[in-house]
Amino acid sequence: MRLVIVSNRVTIPDRHEKVMAGGLAVALREALEQRGGLWFGWSGAVSEGAPAPVRQVEHGNVTYAVTDLSEAERQSYYLGFSNRALWPLMHYRLGLTEFQRSDYMGYLGVNRRFARALAGLIKPDDMIWIHDYHLIPLAAELRRRGVTNRIGYFHHIPWPAAEIMGVLPFSATLIRTMAAYDLVGMQTEVDARNLIDGLVSLCGARSDGRRVRLGPRETTVRAFPIGIDVEGFRRLAAASARQATTPLRATRESLGQRKLVIGVDRLDYSKGIVQRLEAFGEFLRDHPEERGRVSLLQIAPPSRSDVPEYADLDRQSDEVAGRLNAQLGEFDWTPIRVVKKAYSRKALAGFYRRAQVGLVTPMRDGMNLVAKEYIAAQDPADPGVLVLSRFAGAAQQMSEALIVNPFDSHEVAEAIRTALAMPKTERIRRFEKLYAIIAATDIDWWTRQYLLALSGEAGAAEALAV
Ligand code: ADQ
Prior knowledge:
The protein has 17 helices and 16 strands. It has helices spanning about 25-35, 70-90, 100-120, 140-145, 160-165, 170-175, 190-205, 230-245, 245-255, 275-285, 310-330, 345-355, 370-375, 410-420, 425-440, 445-455, 460-465; strands at about 5-10, 35-45, 55-60, 60-70, 125-130, 150-155, 185, 205-210, 210-215, 215-225, 260-265, 295-300, 335-340, 355-360, 385-390, 400-405. The chain binds adenosine-5'-diphosphate-glucose (ADQ). InterPro entries: Glyco_trans_20 (IPR001830).
């Protein structure tokens, strides 16, 4: 069966591309290249003159089919409903959730247009795999056009409790469209349960464990925790440590013997970057003996800069880092370095490996691939320690990390101290367990599991579960 992937953004690879931020893009490209197929979605460009045509580009065994959005569509579907309503709501940030009826109409309009374009590209036995919150109603729109193929959906971000989802106007109408899928994949069991509860309590569905019946259709809702290419990333990190690429060598030279704590995130309020900087400041204030001995490197490339809440965060993170550096720094020591740019996978792997502590403290996160990348990049003979938010989906699997509540800056500060002081034997013990779990549930495992379940071989998929 040919695989058709649909996601909001499609980046057609070019030979010179070195830098790629965004967990979704990284994970999917790897999956599709292994199998071949079609990848459909927004080109990332804006053009007027509706409806925008679909352009197709062949690249290896993958066909990329992309369409532009009009500026009005970008505003309503992408910036408005997806990123100012669904994103904050699904990350439990009710105070940041901005609902506009016209944005919702734009969101439905783009999903309808995508369905129309996609229906013409689908072959009878294609298996369709749709990704993420931008495209929730896409399967319902495809079904309306008579598409009977197996259609799956994977939700990369948290799915909140029904009480939270119920805040969204039209939530029942939107959630109901989930029943058009044969399989819905969530990052964690909690997310899966929340969706089932929502379908039952807001839409009147009936459920029997993982299966939900709404009208004539039956949908399976299950957790498939996403993984990374662990072995590939481990090799990159080892090579990066040997070769000392330019940014890495410069970091080494500028740090000297100092220890390094690292944070790597898109600049997004869900990632808890400002809270993390404050917690690091608290750690230095509470433990003055550590001053001058350790620095925090926060790598945070800006994203969604034309959403006002992101521009605020950009300013706020500069202010907090500047204030803490001014209060705590010395002429020859800068406590916090914030670098707002993207790096190659190899440079990133090298940074992780050089860092004694990986600080992954989102306020809420679907999974968080950085937690897994940090572990994959460690030197097994002298590994660093992962400090991980209990509100990242990754915490469900990675219980040997130091698990913290990111809302409690004192707890995070103490975890940094514990991590820096942890004896090597304990570091190795924790690392080995963490590495084993991320290696057993890597990106190959994830795609295999999901596609087995979507193709109807659910029994086989269950047998693979760990
Ligand atoms: P994201 O919110 O983008 O993904 P995450 O899972 O952490 O979050 O993935 C970020 C990716 O971007 C990582 O692979 C990281 O290496 C890369 N990246 C970040 N900063 C970078 C930089 N400066 N230079 C280069 N690369 C950088 C969403 C959900 C997550 C979920 C993923 C996958 O929000 O919860 O884990 O999808 O499902």
